[in-house]
Amino acid sequence: MPPDCKFVFVTGGVMSGIGKGVVTASVGKLFQFRGFKISVVKIDPYLNVDPGTLNPIEHGECFVTEDVWDFKPVPGGQPIYESDEKSYRISEIDQDFGTYSRFLGIDMHPSHNITSGQIYLSTILSERKGKFLGRTVQIIPHCTNMIKERLLNIAQNEDLDVLLIECGGTVGDLESSIFLEAFRQLKLELPKKYTAFVHVTLVPYSKAVGQQKSKPTQHSVKMLQSAGLQPDVLICRSQTILQEDIKNKLSLFSNITKDAVISNPDLEIIYELPLLFEDQKLGDLLCEILDLKAKLVSYSKVNNYSEWLKMVEMYKSEKPIVRIGMPGKYFNISDSYISINDALEHAAVNQGYKTELKMINITEDLNIEKELEDCDGILLTPGFGERAVEGMIKCAEYAMEFKIPFLGICFGAQLFFAAFCRKYLGLKGANSTEIDPKTKFPVVDLMESQKDVSEKGGTMRLGGLKIKVEKGTRVFEAYKTEEITERFRHRYHINTKYIGDAEKKGIKVSSRDESGEIINSIELDRDDHWMVGTQFHPEFKSKPYKPSPIYFDFIKACVKNKK
Ligand code: GLN
Fold first, then answer.
1. What is the DSSP letter of 140?
2. Boundary (domain end) residue, out of 247, 279, 307
3. CATH number of the domain within which 93 lies
4. Which of 140, 227, 340, 457 could form a disulfide with 180, with the two C-beta atoms 3.0–4.6 Å apart?
5. Are 287 and 333 in the same domain?
6. Residues 274, 335 within the same domain
7. What pairs with residue 442 in β-bridges?
């Protein structure tokens, strides 16, 4: 029996980076407007088992989920090698999940991010364990079966009306072809009207001829067709609205009715895209393809069309600017800190301001004072490794010196503590042992209990964890409750050995873990300067209609300091 869930597959053509994640989230929104329970799966065809180890410069930010998944590559079978029993803790997933969760307001389990690495690892280890009983193990059917099983399980276990599946990369990539093959098989095996295929492509504008060009899209549709898949809907990314003659051409050459050729022009506010799709009747069209009748419409802020419309209008309205300096080191692509950028924007817009982010790429010869001069506030970014650290510490010192509102996230909080210890405790060269393992003053360090385990890996503190908030602190003022849950992704900790002395000089520990042993946030104990560092990452939970409380208060402080 197939699950009572419909599947919408989203593929991409022409090139990557054209906003397929935003399209997938917006298509999901159309189903939410009609009262359906939905979720999203993202497929990443690379061989990494999870994106946790990928460099943000290459791949954008790593999103962190609430849950941590204990991924065991082999679900059954007789163990042959003891080492095969290993499981992998997965909570770091593709940044598109940030987009999905901001649009759709749902928390997805890390198993919703399927990588080729997971599929091949499971298949090969299953073979080693004798699961295939001597048969020849092949991409089809063994890998494709595993992909289908993963999708069907999610649909069934989560009792969904619609599951959207976004396939990363572009059609024609060798590594994504097994996923397209699994989709083709699923369409064949499921009853009629259970699947819909949405293909997202680029329609470039040729300045020389003054025309939008349809050829790249035609080619990518052909490529999809040669994999046995016919798109039901074409979503065309272009600078401006699609010209009528291009729509006609694309309809004719792609074998798609004209009403299913959808325009997706550049937008200032991405949250507007679902509304633009509604205007083009895409929601109704998909429901028709999938034989779905709209349910009782929800009036919750997240799922209601008119609430969403109101929200988009709020984002689009003219507003004064608040300027935030973001010193960091992963600036080669714009997506490295996307959840932070968005959380700052949510916090600002919800109090009548617009953010202007000044990304400050820390290099050795940079004049930091000059860079920070015109900023209303400083957000010190998360990160790993030695590069740019001294400069980032200087930024925290600058904030203390000139009383600039400051929010340090994870690494940013650790470096805030190092800066404080250097400046006010006189601990010259105080550092994190991640950066300087031989430092005389290891003010940020691994916990004793981590030190043995570190050889074997698995020391990363991950996922959503309970936090005990101290009353009378900035963090309490923001959250207004003594217990919160936020997400973590770190190994090193603010060293409690130094905290007594730091407290005497004006640091306040504003939150800890449940045991009381781990410091989860610090702040300056002063009324005239808002400076907070959180070991957790509140940006992962921020929504456009419900900003993160601590980001909200940070922006409030920046507004007060406006130059
Ligand atoms: N590198 C630091 C640690 O591992 C901070 C990590 C982060 O900023 N996410 O603790």
1. I
2. 307
3. 3.40.50.300
4. 227
5. no
6. no
7. 431
What own/partner pairs with CB < 8 Å and gap ≥ 24 does 293-296 have? 294/34, 294/35, 295/34, 295/35, 295/36, 295/161, 296/35
Evaluate whether 344 touches 551 at the Cβ level (below 8 Å): yes
Output the domain CATH number for residue 543.
3.40.50.880
Among 57-61, 192-196, 342-346, which stretch is predicted with the lowest mean pLDDT?
57-61
Cα separation, 440 vs 418, in Å, equals 12
Q: How far is the CA of 78 from the centre of ligand 1 (A)?
A: 38
List the beta bridge partners of residue 38: 162
Residue 511: domain span: 318-560
Does the residue 518 lie in any domain?
Answer: yes
Same domain (yes/no): 253, 348: no
61: its two tokens: 């930010």
Over the stretch 68-83, which tens digit does the pLDDT of each residue have? 988 888 765 555 555 5
Residue 66 identity: E
CA 301 to ligand 1 centroid distance, Å: 34
CB-neighbour burial class of residue 516 (10 A; exposed 0-12, middle 13-18, buried 19+): exposed
Query: Considering 236, 410, 421, 558, which one is annotated as catalytic?
Result: 410
pLDDT category at 439 given cuts 50, 70, 90 is: very high
Q: Is the CB of 187 under 6 A from ligand 1?
A: no
Annotated active-site residue 539? The verdict is yes
The pTM score is 0.93
The tens digit of pLDDT for each residue in 491-534 reads: 999 999 999 999 999 999 999 999 999 999 999 999 999 999 99
